[in-house]
Amino acid sequence: MLALVVLVLLLIPSPEAPSSAPGFIDKVAHFLLFFALVLPILSVRPRWWVWVVPLAIGYGALLEGIQPYFGRGFEWYDMLANAVGAIAAVPVAHMIHRRWLQRR
């Protein structure tokens, strides 16, 4: 379900941002989307990071690649933000998983 939400959010045409809005906000949004995509899976199954993270990075690259067909632009830094978000979720998910096991 989260992958579908990410798909929709990254493919809907974006209105022109005001000149005062920094591009940094867009990168943070990409980071958070992929962080949120990976975190729930790895919080339950932390050992799956070996295939979940590469799949998420590939998914982000695929979405960036097809964005020009949906009225959006391809950006390398968006792809980087997607990857960093997916990778950053790994240690947080491991911490959540450990704390969850301690409560059991």
The SS-based structural class is mainly alpha
Measured on Cα atoms, how large is the radius of gyration?
15 Å
Distance between the termini: 28 Å
By oligomeric state, this entry counts as single chain
How are helices and strands ordered from N to C?
A: HHHH
Anisotropy-based shape = elongated
Helix content: over 70%
Q: Which stretches are poorly predicted, pLDDT < 50 over at least 5 residues?
A: none
Structure notes:
- The chain has 104 residues and is mostly helical.
- The protein has a domain at 68-104.
- 74% of the residues lie in helices and 0% in strands.
- It has helices at 2-11, 24-44, 49-66, 76-103.
- It is elongated, with a radius of gyration of 15 Å.
Characteristics:
104 residues; mainly alpha; 74% helix
Quick structural summary:
It contains 4 helices and no strands. The protein has helices at 2-11, 24-44, 49-66, 76-103.
